[in-house]
Design brief:
Blueprint: H1 3-13, H2 34-44, E1 48-51, H3 58-65, E2 72-73, E3 100-104, E4 107-109, E5 114-118, H4 126-129, E6 132-137, E7 142-143, H5 146-150, E8 161-164, E9 169-170, E10 178-179, E11 186-191
């Protein structure tokens, strides 16, 4: 008998009887005031929150939040303050040095401040290489929790997608919080 067969035989000899999986009955968390909850959690994770008022120009908001931005990358037609359309670049490395990337979020999650992003741009590098990231989000596309998030239409129908919750951060190195370690140093979510 080989050592592999010996190990498997001993495991089979000491196997325990299967146990039925316990039920998963619980009530997921919900929020009475979605906008207040989203703002609270976004600020807790280090992001900016802007609620666009009726008639307010999103381009003016972006310019007021990032007044020193020289390079603004976006392929969204309503973003007229963009200086670069990332879809027109030949190489994603050309996005290096982007001050602000402006993208669209599919939906936001109230319990943790995350926004689901699908890749609607040629290069997903814009999500991570931009110094600051602006995420445009429809205020009617907020869900309470991750259970609702996973049930969203089209959630699993994409080439690339990710959740983004505030600026990039890590505390792995000597337990010191570092902002902008792997991506944007600042994130602003603008709800329309």
């Amino acid at each position: 008998m080989s050592s592999k067969e010996d190990i498997l035989a001993r495991l089979k000899k000491h196997a325990i009887d299967p146990v039925e999986r316990p039920g998963m009955e619980f009530t997921p968390i919900t929020y009475a005031d979605p906008l207040a909850q989203f703002e609270k959690i976004l600020k807790a994770v280090g992001a900016n929150f802007v609620l666009l008022e009726e008639g307010q120009d999103v381009n003016e908001v972006i310019r007021s939040v990032y007044p020193n931005a020289k390079s603004i990358a976006s392929n969204l037609p309503e973003i007229t303050c963009a200086t670069v359309n990332p879809d027109n670049l030949d190489d994603p490395r050309e996005l290096n040095g982007t001050d602000v990337g402006v993208i669209r979020g599919e939906f936001g999650v109230l319990e943790n401040g995350m926004v689901w992003i699908n890749q609607h741009t040629r290069y997903k590098a814009i999500f991570f290489i931009s110094e600051a990231l602006v995420i445009l989000l429809d205020r009617n596309r907020l869900v309470n929790n991750m259970h609702e998030a996973y049930k969203q239409p089209g959630f699993d129908d994409f080439g690339y997608g990710c959740f983004i919750a505030g600026p990039s951060k890590t505390a792995d190195i000597e337990q010191a919080l570092v902002i902008g370690a792997h991506g944007a140093r600042a994130v602003t979510v603008i709800l329309s």
